[in-house]
Design brief:
AcylCoA_DH/oxidase_NM_dom_sf, flavin adenine dinucleotide binding, oxidoreductase, 674 residues, Butyryl-CoA Dehydrogenase, subunit A, domain 3, FAD
Length: 674
């Protein structure tokens, strides 16, 4: 399909000038202080905890097994509808999706996308009232795992469309009129994309440069967005832009308060140009691009929520939206397990299958046990999201963090098990007469998951902030350097009351009683009760460690990112252990591979406990301080002599592309699928 002609090079005198053209001020992200950046991020957080949270309680040292056990189950009608769609989706994946072709041509064929529309895959999460399938989060994730194994690019397209694209923000924050106008299109015909990142703005939204200036009954958008997944083929966009704060209250429209705001934007609006389709090491079929807005008029009726609510909308959307990524990691783990099983049984070395050699067998055990745990984490979190009884913001974030990290390790271990064949492409294997196993492609495709939807480093900080929320609520003013002495005194009294009641409870608990959680040690099965007792004891130890660190570092705690990352990683392991045990017991009670599930859960917990103990050791025995000194030296040029003896094959150009607002100078490569 040829690209439509570019329209955004033509200026329209009836439109107001872009802000930088009117004021003469330099373009680019606004200059903000570190304190202001933190203030913006903090304001976007969901304040308060109106519902219980298993993970939040765990970080406070309270092991609330009752919040996840017995394992919540979907309603029979939800199961029936979900299984019916999964059967259709599997048939579609097996007959209509050629993953090797998508990899070779770096594009999902238009006929495949049209087939997904006909299947109803665009509307998996959209309510039936708007023409969608109305699947639960559980079955939506199972479908994504299925599509993602057929082609990770197809899984990414469907996930970006529904998990973070227009449907989810509208479901949570849209008006009835907006839902009526857009959701039927999104359920059947229109692809959506989410546009937040900019060339010089990633996880620091306070510096967002794209603007939306109110002009009568519309807003005028100007700016450039980077890494717009689905942006090349999208029909509807959800765009985050900064609305300038009104200067005169008398002239400002009602409800105008400025700030980062969310809008639904028609992708073919005059002034929108997809300037470039990005190419990556993996997910070669991903339709991800650079999108420029130049004097784009968007009706005020298309604003989602009030002005200034954009970041809160984005973060709330991601509470469940993040579950799609670990769901596809589960699918990848299942595929890796199958290939490892078949290959390791067929390949012989030194007189026996390589699976029988301990060095390879340990990798297979890791893949099997970890895949079981990842599915336990995703299904548990998803079912809790469906029931809406618990606040799962931490659970979903932990699922994303843990799924992306462990999924990458699973793919890496498969490549190692396959040896040279793991490094060889599927096409090359087929050309010389062997089975075309795309193990190296899986490794490349999985790598982005540690960056997508919040990098591992950002997830550590996000989860850590939520995990210490209770401490900051009672002691935040004590460690805040800007708080007055009188306020510090009042905060001290409040903190004293909280810790006087909390700290004694961290000394002893059910984890020290041999008979606790006895229902997890049925006759003839491995003992999972011992692992749950470990989780309970370790949750209290984790809480004590966090308290000690806050007492030691106080206001400098937020700079101890290495320590915070390890705290979060311990919590992720404990959550995964809990989910694995609860899932195993649920399967046993339902007579569904219960004995085998207990075996997998037991091995996973044993492996996880080793990782947890190492992380605890590294809380206080690490190289964080000398690492910082080396970094200072690197940035100061102290070690440039170490760089000698190598050449730099990089091309020329700036580190960050110019993203100044204005008309485009490039062809529009937007290509909607009709």
């Amino acid at each position: 399909m040829s690209a439509p002609p570019t329209r955004s090079t033509h200026s329209d005198p009836s439109r107001p000038s872009a802000p930088h053209e009117r004021s003469g001020e330099p373009s680019g992200p606004p200059k903000v202080s570190e304190r202001e950046a933190r203030r913006v991020a903090e304001a976007a957080r969901e304040q308060g905890w109106r519902r219980p949270s298993f993970a939040k309680e765990m970080f406070l040292g309270r092991f609330r097994l009752d919040l996840i056990h017995p394992h919540p189950l979907p309603a029979p009608d939800d199961v029936r509808r979900g299984e019916e769609f999964l059967a259709k989706a599997r048939a579609f994946c097996e007959t209509r999706i050629d993953g090797a072709l998508i990899e070779r041509e770096a594009r999902i064929p238009d006929e495949v996308i049209r087939g997904l529309k006909e299947l109803g895959a665009l509307g998996m999460k959209i309510d039936t009232a708007y023409g969608g399938l109305g699947l639960t989060q559980v079955y939506y994730n199972k479908a994504l795992a299925l599509f993602g194994t057929a082609s990770p690019a197809v899984g990414a397209l469907l996930s970006a469309h529904q998990s973070i694209g227009v449907p989810q923000p509208l479901k949570l924050f849209g008006t009835p009129e907006q839902k009526d106008a857009f959701l039927p299109r999104l359920a059947r015909t229109d692809i959506s994309a989410f546009l937040l990142t900019e060339p010089d703005v990633g996880s620091d939204p306070a510096r967002l440069a794209t603007t939306a200036v109110r002009d009568g009954d519309a807003y005028v958008l100007d700016g450039v967005k980077l890494w717009t997944t689905n942006g090349v083929v999208a029909d509807l966009l959800v765009v985050m832009a900064r609305v300038p704060k009104p200067e005169g209250a008398e002239e400002a429209p009602e409800g105008s308060r400025g700030g980062i705001t969310a809008f639904v934007v028609e992708a073919d609006s005059p002034g929108i140009t997809v300037e470039h389709r990005n190419a990556f090491m993996g997910l070669r079929g991903l339709e991800n691009g650079v999108t420029r807005f130049h004097r784009v008029r968007v009706p005020a009726a298309n604003r989602i929520g009030p002005e200034g609510a954009g970041l809160k909308i984005a973060l709330t959307t991601l509470n469940t939206g993040r579950l799609s990524l670990p769901a596809m990691c589960v699918g990848a783990g299942k595929w890796c397990l199958r290939i490892a099983r078949e290959w390791s049984g067929a390949r012989e070395q030194w007189g026996r299958p390589v699976a029988r050699h301990e060095a390879v067998g340990a990798k297979i055990s890791f893949i099997a046990a970890t895949t079981f745990a990842l599915e336990a984490v995703v299904d548990l979190s998803s079912q809790m999201a469906d029931e809406d009884r618990n606040d799962i913001r931490i659970e979903a974030a932990l699922a994303k963090l843990y799924g992306s990290e462990m999924g990458w390790l699973i793919a890496d271990e498969l490549v190692q098990i396959r040896g040279g064949r793991g490094f060889e492409t599927a096409d090359s294997l087929a050309a010389r007469g062997e089975r075309a196993v795309p193990a190296e492609q899986m490794l490349r495709d999985m790598r982005i998951n540690r960056i997508f939807e919040g990098s591992t480093e950002i997830m550590h900080l996000l989860i850590a902030r939520e995990a210490v929320d209770a401490h900051l609520a009672v002691a935040g003013d004590i460690i805040d350097p800007d708080t007055s002495l009188s306020d510090k005194a009042r905060a001290g009294a409040k903190a004293g009351r909280f810790y006087a009641g909390w700290l004694p409870k961290l000394v002893a608990g059910p984890g020290q009683l041999p008979g606790s959680y006895a229902e997890f040690h049925p006759a003839g099965h491995p003992d999972l009760a011992v692992h749950l007792r470990y989780v309970e004891r370790t949750a209290r130890k984790l809480a004590r460690s966090t308290f000690y660190a806050m007492s030691r570092w106080q206001g400098r705690m937020e700079t101890k990112q290495g320590f915070l990352g390890r705290i979060v990683d311990i919590g992720a392991e404990l959550f995964a252990m809990s989910a694995a045990c609860v899932r195993a017991e649920m399967l046993r009670a339902n007579r569904d591979h219960g004995r085998e599930a207990y075996q997998l859960a037991d091995v996973f917990c044993r492996q996880a406990r080793i990782r947890v103990e190492e992380l605890f050791h590294r809380l206080w025995t690490n190289t964080d301080e000398p690492d910082r000194r080396v970094v200072d030296g690197v940035l100061a040029g102290t070690y440039t002599w170490l760089e000698e003896g190598a050449v730099d094959p990089s091309g020329t150009g700036p580190w960050i592309a110019d993203a100044a607002p204005g008309p485009t100078e490039r062809e529009n490569v937007h290509r909607p699928i009709r």
